[in-house]
Specification:
This is Helix-turn-helix domain-containing protein. It comes from candidate division WOR-3 bacterium. One of its GO terms (molecular function) is DNA binding. InterPro entries: Cro/C1-type_HTH, Lambda_DNA-bd_dom_sf. This protein has about 250 residues and is mainly α. Among the domains are: about 70 residues, lambda repressor-like DNA-binding domains (434 Repressor (Amino-terminal Domain), Orthogonal Bundle), CATH 1.10.260; about 110 residues, Methane Monooxygenase Hydroxylase, Chain G, domain 1 (Up-down Bundle). About 60% of the residues lie in helices and about 0% in strands. It is built from twelve helices and no strands. Helix 2 crosses helix 3 and helix 7 runs antiparallel to helix 8. The radius of gyration is 27 Å and the shape is globular. The protein starts with 11 loop residues before the first helix and ends with a helix. The relative contact order is 0.10.
Length: about 250
């Protein structure tokens, strides 16, 4: 059975072109950048090449943040080309839903007395068949190394999907907060960039102790305040991020 096809993200070409521009401005080669962010330079440059061409389908914010840090850039350098997490389909109109419910209501059909007797006969329950035994699980005949590799890929894909789902929730919560507080639209991008950096930090410290994650997130606020953002709004965005990525610690 094949893997489930996920919808591709939009805007990866623009993001890759911006990352390449930042790398060239910093004077670093693809191999040097791969080494700085922790990849094997002999093979990691190929990933950097694909990332800059927009050919990495689901790049993690952790990798993007590492590239920016290695080139001496900030999130604000790519905030206008961040990839889209997927379009949300519009809800159906009330009229269409009413029409659908009407079409689901069965119309009574005219029947003769004989047909009604036959229908009652057909309603008499027959003997319930016994459930068939579950089919035996197919044995995986692949070598153990291939099985472990496939399991790692599956876990990585699951983590990536869960991460971008959390990012989408934080983005929506941040946008709603900014609208409710009537924050000027010219500042929305900066607040959303701060929310993305909180998501990346929270995901990177998923297995760390709560106090370690809290200290790392707290260090993100002073630079944002220095850029003119409101400390109270930043704290609310950080709290929303914690509720999505660390629900257990946020409850306590």
């Amino acid at each position: 059975m094949g893997r489930k096809v996920r919808p591709a993200m939009h805007g990866l070409d623009a993001l890759g072109a911006r990352l390449k521009q930042i790398r060239l401005q910093s004077g670093r080669s693809q191999m040097m950048l791969a080494k700085l962010i922790g990849f094997d330079p002999a093979h990691g440059y190929k990933y950097i090449l694909r990332l800059e061409k927009g050919q990495v389908p689901n790049p993690t914010l952790r990798t993007i943040a590492a590239c920016l840090e290695a080139c001496g850039a900030q999130w604000q350098a790519i905030v206008d080309v961040l990839p889209d997490t997927g379009a949300v389909s519009a809800p159906p109109s009330p009229k269409s839903s009413i029409d659908n419910r009407k079409s689901e209501i069965p119309l009574p059909a005219a029947s003769s007395p004989q047909s009604s007797i036959d229908n009652r006969k057909s309603e008499i329950p027959s003997a319930v068949p016994e459930p068939s035994p579950a089919a035996p699980r197919r044995r995986d005949h692949r070598p153990l190394r291939e099985q472990l590799r496939a399991r790692r890929i599956e876990q990585r894909d699951l983590r990536t999907r869960r991460f971008w789902s959390g990012v989408k929730q934080v983005d929506e919560a941040t946008a709603a907060l900014l609208r409710s507080l009537r924050v000027p639209s010219r500042l929305h991008r900066s607040y959303l960039a701060f929310a993305r950096s909180c998501c990346s930090t929270s995901d990177a410290l998923e297995a760390a102790r709560p106090e370690v994650a809290e200290r790392a997130l707290a260090r993100l606020i002073p630079p944002a305040v220095a850029q003119g953002l409101d400390r109270g709004i930043l704290a609310q965005i950080q709290s929303a991020c914690a509720q999505v990525f660390h629900p257990q610690s946020s409850v306590g």
